[in-house]
Amino acid sequence: MKRMMAIVEREMRKFVRSPALMLVAMIFPLVQLIVLGNAFGGKIHDARLGIVDHDRILIQGVETDRPQALRIREALNAIHANARTLDAIDYSDEKTAVEDVHNGKIDGVVVIPENYSRDVYMGRQPRLGLVLDNSDNFMTSTLQQNLNELVAALNQQPVEPRLVQQIALNVVELYPYIEYM
């Protein structure tokens, strides 16, 4: 054991006396940590996501979104305004949007089907479409996660009203019962 400690002590003295060796031993692990840490992803910003909305209605000659499709657009715009993860781009037809995903111009497409709002109101299990370019696994999983969170938020029940809807009775006892034993 003494021989081992003597070797360790000798190597530590060499290490302390050599500033270049100390610098290399402390700086290189930090550089590797930074380079490898950033090489495996991170947070995405401004991913281009196309929206193809087939759930539109013609009102006085102007084509507008129906209420549930508008909720989806508002949620995507909120994500863009706050987290800046997604940037929504409108498309008029599905074919052009899918071609742009295939060519790498955009990262994915959300397709809102025809009669989506009506299906939501009637409880017919409406579905949204998501077309992704799965050549970039990190981007694909991030977009899929963000849209799953969006769908979960859309599926939540509406908030209970703050105003009292029903009359309730609260009983106050002047002399409450006290149990002695």
Protein structure class:
alpha/beta
Total strands: 6
State the distance separating the first and last CA atoms.
Answer: 70 Å
The CATH topology of the largest domain is given as abc type-2 transporter like fold
Question: From the alpha-carbon coordinates, what is the Rg to the nearest angstrom?
Answer: 30 Å
The CATH homologous superfamily of the largest domain is named abc type-2 transporter like domain
Brief overview:
The chain has helices at residues 2-17, 19-39, 67-82, 94-103, 116-122, 137-155, and strands at residues 47-53, 56-59, 62-65, 86-91, 108-112, 129-132.
Q: In words, what does this structure look like?
A:
The chain is an alpha/beta fold and 181 residues long. It has two domains: 2-39; 47-155, abc type-2 transporter like domain (abc type-2 transporter like fold). It is built from six helices and six strands. It has helices at 2-17, 19-39, 67-82, 94-103, 116-122, 137-155, and strands at 47-53, 56-59, 62-65, 86-91, 108-112, 129-132. A four-stranded mixed beta sheet has the order 4-1-5-6, with helices on both faces. 12% of the residues are buried. The mean pLDDT is 84.
